[in-house]
Known about the structure:
This protein is of the alpha/beta class. The chain has one domain: Rossmann fold (3-Layer(aba) Sandwich). It has helices at 52-59, 92-101, 119-130, 136-149, 166-178, 196-208, 224-230, 248-253, 258-276; strands at 8-17, 26-36, 41-45, 74-82, 85-86, 102-105, 184-188, 216-221, 233-238, 241-247. The strands form 2 sheets. It has a 6-stranded mixed β-sheet with strand order 6-7-8-3-9-10, with helices on both faces. A 4-stranded antiparallel β-sheet has the order 2-1-4-5, covered by helices on one side. α6 (196-208) links the parallel β7 and β8 (216-221). α3 crosses α4 and α4 packs across α5 (166-178).
Amino acid sequence: MTDDITPIVVSDLSAEYPAHGASASCVALHGVSLRVERGEILGVLGGSGSGKSTLARIVAGRAVRDASASVAPRITGGDATVLGHGMRSLRRRERARVTFHVGYLAQDAAATLPTSLTVSDVITSPIFERDRHYNRRAAGERAATLLDAVHLPLGLLNKYPYELSGGQRQRVALARTLVLGPSVLIADEPTAGIDVTVRQAVVELLGDLRHHHDFAALVVSHDLAVLRHATARIAVLERGALVGYGDIDAVLSDPTHPYVAGLAATYRAEHERESSA
Length: 277
């Protein structure tokens, strides 16, 4: 990542899902603008249908139709620029370059791990997709390092995904996302399905990534507590619109939208219960 390029710049971005089958077109994002600087993690907070996963998919360069989705979001206004590449007019060759440098942890990543591969092979599969002749011993060492980083025992390397718990599979999926050493990480609900006892370890891992000067991340979650531990700044989406943006404490202490005010009240109540317990 060069010093003069802001990793993620979203400028007045609007997007929709085109009509397909019996379903009408659906507007997913309305004029969203935000930035993620080098060395920063930005949290994106919102409920179901807020557009947060659509934003993640577009910024990750995965706004294309594939086997896991019957329809892909289409940018209808503005743009998202990632590592200097505009997503609205991204060509196939540029997309390959972007997806190499941008790690993407999809919301359903844990449920879609290939069951025929060992954990080691799952983690290292992105390496061999790009270089069939890569040294297998080096790849295995990389898998072991990342498994340890996501707080899983090395004994799982030769296990298969169906032998793991949901939380373990999610952490394996995160390790696979990080295996190529991406400059940018897009994580959609990274703690989904993870037991509360290990959730904090994953959040801490994401927070530690902030210490890498050349790294930037956008972490999507519906859980404000998760984002508070991983980042200092958030963007709040509601029905596709940006309704809160900036330092977490500033956004919550002076909410300008009813949805944000509700989040702030809920968070304060939960914090007070934890403090008095």
